[in-house]
C-alpha cells in the first residue's frame, strides 16, 4: 500500500518504519527540514531500541522515504496518517494546532478514494471535526478514520509488530477494508481487529491509559499505606496478583508515572468530562496521587537528613521516566533534582541514555557521570528513580567504598531489604519496612 505519514515524531517514525518493514511504500513528511535531512542520512532523533537499524534497512530498500514536500507524498497515497504532536494546553486540554495545520496542508492533495487516518491522540469528537473541516476545504466527502496507537516507549517496535489488538474507528467499509488489509499481517489468530465508531476509538485510547495510570496510583497509595501499617507491598502485590481477576501487570509501586502519555491523557480525559458536566473524581484522584508520589523520595530524604540536608552530596541513578528510553518528559527524577538543588545539595547524576536531555535542561548545575559507580564518589546518599537493568545487580562492596555514607533511597524496589541489611546499607524503599 502507498502511505504518507505526516509527522516524524515518536509515533510517526515508529509507525511509518514498521509499516515500510511489512512491504508498504511509506513517505514520512515533516515540516522540520533539518530533521528530514538527518533522517535521510540515517540519523534518528530519538532513542528506541531497534529503530535505527529498521529505518536504515527500509530506506535502503527504497520502501521508506523522508521529505518536507507534503503535496507529492499525499497525492500518491491511499492512506494518509496524521501523527503530529498534541501537547497539553495550559488548562490540561489537548492543543490541536499542529493537527489543524496538517489537515490544511493535506486537503488540496488528497486522492478521491484516499483515507485520512488519525494516529495522534485527540479529544473525542476530533475525527468528526476533521471530517467536517476536510469537507469544507475540499468541497467533497473525504474518508477519515481513527486508529489509536498503544506503543510503549522502549518496546515500540515489538508492540507494533505484535499488537494485542488493533482498534479502528471508521465510517465507511472502504476505510475498514483498507485498514484491515494493512494490519492483517500483524494480527495473530487470537488478536482481534476491532472496528467501531471514531468516537469509541478515540475514547479507547484515553480509557486504556487512564486505567493503567489508575493501577499505578492505586498501588502507590497502597504501598504508602503498607509502610505505615508495617506491611510489605511486594508480599501484598503477590498476594493479590495471583487472583486472576487482578493479575500482576502495572502494579509495581514506584516514584509515580511520567512520560508523554499517562499524565497528559489523564488530564485531557478529565478535561473532556468536565466539558460535558461530569465531575471526573477518579481521574482527578489518579493525577493527584501521582503528583504526590513524585515527591515520595523527597519526603524520605528530607526526613532522614533533616536540617543537615543542605550541602550534602546526593547521587541519582536513573533520570528517564522509565528504562530503555532517553525520554525525561514528566520524569519523577526531575522533581527530586529540583528539590535537592533548591536545598543547596550537590547533585551527581547518572543514566544510561538520558544524560544529554537532562544536561540541556540543567546545564552546569548538576554533575554528570557516564558510569554509575563514578556518580557515587563521596555521596551521602544514592536515590534510584528508574529501574534500568544495569542497576539491579551492582557490586555493593564497591558502592560502599565509593560512598561517604552507605545510604540508599530506592524508588523502584530493586533490592531486597534483607540483602541490604547484610551489605550494611541504610535502605529505604517503597512500601516496605526500612533498613536502618
Ligand atoms: C504508555 C502506554 O503503555 C502505551 O500503551 C501508550 O500508547 C502510551 O503510554 P509509555 O508512556 O511508553 O506507554 O510507558 P509505560 O511503559 O506504559 O510506563 C508509563 C509509566 O508508568 C512509567 O513512568 C513507569 O515507570 C510507570 N509504571 C509502569 C509504574 O510506576 N508501575 C508499573 O507497574 C508500570
TrEMBL record:
Stored SMART domains: UDPG_MGDP_dh_C
Gene3D superfamilies named in the record: Cytochrome c1, transmembrane anchor, C-terminal (1.20.5.100), NAD(P)-binding Rossmann-like Domain (3.40.50.720)
Name of the protein: UDP-glucose 6-dehydrogenase
Keywords from the UniProt entry: NAD, Oxidoreductase
Entries under NCBIfam families matching the protein: NDP-sugDHase
Organism expressing this protein natively: Pirellula staleyi (strain ATCC 27377 / DSM 6068 / ICPB 4128)
Lineage: Bacteria, Pseudomonadati, Planctomycetota, Planctomycetia, Pirellulales
Cross-referenced Pfam families: UDPG_MGDP_dh, UDPG_MGDP_dh_C, UDPG_MGDP_dh_N
Statement: the UniProt record of this protein carries the keyword NAD: yes
Domain annotation UDP-glucose/GDP-mannose dehydrogenase C-terminal: ranges: 315-417
Pathway it works in: Nucleotide-sugar biosynthesis; UDP-alpha-D-glucuronate biosynthesis; UDP-alpha-D-glucuronate from UDP-alpha-D-glucose: step 1/1
Binding locations of substrate: 150-153, 205, 250-254, 258, 322
Enzyme class: oxidoreductase
InterPro entries, sorted: 6-PGluconate_DH-like_C_sf, NAD(P)-bd_dom_sf, UDP-Glc/GDP-Man, UDP-Glc/GDP-Man_DH_C, UDP-Glc/GDP-Man_DH_C_sf, UDP-Glc/GDP-Man_DH_dimer, UDP-Glc/GDP-Man_DH_N, UDPglc_DH_bac
EC nos: 1.1.1.22
Annotated catalytic residues: 261 (nucleophile)
Amino acid at each position: 500500500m502507498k502511505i504518507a505519514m505526516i509527522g516524524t515524531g515518536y509515533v510517526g517514525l515508529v509507525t511509518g518504519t514498521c509499516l515500510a518493514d511489512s512491504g508498504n511504500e511509506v513517505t514520512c513528511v515533516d515540516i522540520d527540514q533539518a530533521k528530514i535531512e538527518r533522517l535521510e542520512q540515517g540519523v534518528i532523533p530519538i532513542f528506541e531500541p531497534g529503530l535505527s537499524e529498521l529505518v536504515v534497512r527500509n530506506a535502503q530498500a527504497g520502501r521508506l522515504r523522508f521529505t518536507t514536500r507534503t503535496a507529492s507524498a499525499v497525492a500518491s497515497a491511499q492512506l494518509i496518517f496524521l501523527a503530529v504532536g498534541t501537547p497539553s494546553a495550559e488548562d490540561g486540554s489537548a492543543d490541536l494546532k499542529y493537527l489543524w495545520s496538517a489537515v490544511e496542508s493535506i486537503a488540496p492533495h488528497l486522492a478521491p478514494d484516499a483515507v485520512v487516518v488519525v494516529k495522534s491522540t485527540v479529544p473525542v469528537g476530533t475525527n468528526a471535526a476533521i471530517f467536517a473541516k476536510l469537507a469544507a476545504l475540499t468541497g467533497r466527502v473525504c474518508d477519515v478514520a481513527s486508529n489509536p496507537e498503544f506503543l510503549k516507549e522502549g518496546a515500540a517496535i515489538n508492540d507494533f509488530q505484535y499488537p494485542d489488538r488493533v482498534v479502528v474507528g471508521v465510517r465507511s467499509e472502504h476505510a475498514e477494508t483498507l485498514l484491515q488489509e494493512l494490519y492483517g499481517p500483524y494480527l495473530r489468530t487470537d488478536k482481534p481487529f476491532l472496528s467501531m465508531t471514531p468516537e469509541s476509538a478515540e475514547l479507547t485510547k484515553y480509557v486504556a491509559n487512564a486505567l493503567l495510570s489508575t493501577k499505578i496510583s492505586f498501588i502507590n497509595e497502597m504501598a504508602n499505606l503498607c509502610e505505615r501499617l508495617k506491611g510489605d507491598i511486594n508480599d501484598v502485590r503477590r498476594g493479590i496478583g495471583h487472583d486472576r481477576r487482578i493479575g500482576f501487570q502495572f502494579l509495581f509501586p514506584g516514584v509515580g508515572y511520567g512520560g508523554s502519555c499517562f499524565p497528559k491523557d489523564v488530564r485531557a480525559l478529565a478535561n473532556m468530562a468536565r466539558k460535558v458536566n461530569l465531575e471526573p473524581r477518579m481521574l482527578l484522584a489518579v493525577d493527584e496521587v501521582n503528583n504526590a508520589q513524585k515527591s515520595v523520595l523527597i519526603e524520605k530524604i528530607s526526613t532522614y537528613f533533616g536540617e543537615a540536608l543542605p550541602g550534602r552530596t546526593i547521587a541519582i541513578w536513573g533520570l528517564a521516566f522509565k528504562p530503555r528510553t532517553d525520554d525525561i518528559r514528566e520524569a519523577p527524577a526531575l522533581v527530586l533534582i529540583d528539590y535537592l538543588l533548591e536545598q543547596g545539595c550537590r547533585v551527581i547524576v547518572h543514566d544510561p541514555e538520558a544524560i544529554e536531555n537532562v544536561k540541556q535542561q540543567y546545564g552546569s548545575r548538576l554533575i554528570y557521570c557516564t558510569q554509575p559507580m563514578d556518580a557515587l564518589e563521596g555521596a551521602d546518599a544514592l536515590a534510584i528513580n528508574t529501574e534500568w537493568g544495569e542497576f539491579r545487580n551492582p557490586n555493593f562492596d564497591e558502592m560502599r567504598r565509593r560512598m561517604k555514607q552507605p545510604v540508599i533511597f530506592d524508588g523502584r524496589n530493586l533490592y531486597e531489604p534483607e540483602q541490604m541489611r547484610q551489605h550494611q546499607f541504610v535502605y529505604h524503599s517503597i512500601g516496605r519496612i526500612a533498613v536502618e
